Fold this protein.
Amino acid sequence: MTDGWNWRRPPTPSAPGAPGAGSQPSTGSPWWSDATADPWRDPYAPSAVVLPPPPPTGGPALDPVADPDAPRRSLTPILLICLVTALLAGGLGGTLGYVFAVRGGLAPGNGTQIGGGNQRVPESAQRAPESLAGVAESVLPSVVTVRVTGAIGSGFVVSTDGHVITNDHVIEDADDTLAVSFRDGSTAPARVVGRDPESDIAVIKVAKSGLTPVDLGDSDAIAVGDPVLAFGSPLALVNTVTQGIVSALDRTIEAGDPGGTTRYYAAIQTDAAVNQGNSGGPLVNASGQVIGVNSVIRSVGGADTEAGNIGLAFAIPMNQAKRVAQDIIDTGKARRTVIGAEVVTGETAGGARLRAVEPAGPAATAGLKSGDVITKLDGRVVEEGTDLIALVRKHAPGSVVAVEYRRGTKAASASVTLAADTN
C-alpha cells in the first residue's frame, strides 16, 4: 500500500510470453505517451466494459419510446364526442331552466307584456274561484266607471243588453256626454233610463251588447262580520278593489245636499275603504254576489271635497236596489214604500212619534193613531223618526211587518201591510 508519491515503474519483461507481455503498451504508443508522467495511472490494472443489468422480470414495464415517424391518431372522434356532450348538456340545462321559470311565473307570455294591450294573468297569480282574489277576478269585468262631465262614479252591469245600476247622485248632472269604461279600457256611450232621487238609485243603458252581468245576492241573508269586497273607481283610480267586513246592519242614514232631496238609508255599514268615486259600485260578499250599492261615506272633513275614508262606509241593500231598478226598467219610475203616517224627526222620544195618520192608510188600518210612538219595526229598534222612514223604505210595497209601539204608558203591537206611495 502506498499513496503513490514515490511509485516506480516495474522492470520491463525481457521475453515474450512473460506475464504482462501482451498488455503493456509500447513506449512509443500515442495512447501512453503521457502515462510516464501520470503518477495515478496503473497501466497494469485490469479493465472491462460494464453494461447496465437488464430490468428484473415481473416489474413494471418501461414506456416504449414513441416513434416520431409513426402515423398519428386522428382527433376528429374526440372533437365529435365533446360537441355532442356540450349539446346534450345545453339542452338539458335549457329544459330545466324553462320548467323552473314556468313554475315561478317568469316564462315568456305568462307575465305582463310591455306595450301590449292584453294582459294575461300568470299561472302563479291564479287563485281558486272561492278565494277573495278569485271573487275579484270574476266580478271586475262587470264593474264600470261612469264618466259624467267633471265627475267620475261607478256602476255594475245587471243585464246582458247593457243595463247598469249606479247612484242617482252620480248621474244627476249627466248630459249627452255620459259614457262608461270597462276593465279592459274600452268605452261606450250611455243614456239614463230612469232615476229615483229619494232612494239614490239610477239605471243607465250602455250602448254595448253581450255584457256579463253580476250575480245578485240576498242582502237579508248577510250578518255582521261577513267579509265583503268594495269595487269601483275611488279618487278616479279605476278597477280598485278593497276588502273589509260588514260592521253593522240597518244603519239608518239621512243624506242629501241642503235644499235638495233628502235620502234615507237603512244601510249596510262596512269598514272596507270607500272614497269619492266608489259611489254606485258594488259591495260583494265572499261568494261573489252583489249585496249592496256603495253610496255614502262618513268623514271628518268639513266639505265634500275634503271627505275621505275613515273606516265607515254605507251601502244600499241589494234587495232594495234591485226592486227600485226593476221598477225603473219596467215603468221608468220607482215606487216608494210608505207606512201611511207622518212622523216627527229630530226628536229624542225613545222612538218615532206619529204626527198624523192617513185615514184608511196602512198605519190606520193596523190601528195606529196620531201620537203613538213606534219603538220597533220588524224587530229593529227605532230610536227616532228618521229610523222609521229608512226602515220602511227598505221593504217592498205589500210587505207585512211587525210593529211595536207605545201609546201613553201602555205598550202594544200590530201587523202593518206597507203600501206604495200614490204620488
In short: The domain at 337-420 is CATH 2.30.42.10 (Pdz3 Domain). The chain has six helices and 21 strands. The chain has a mean pLDDT of 81.
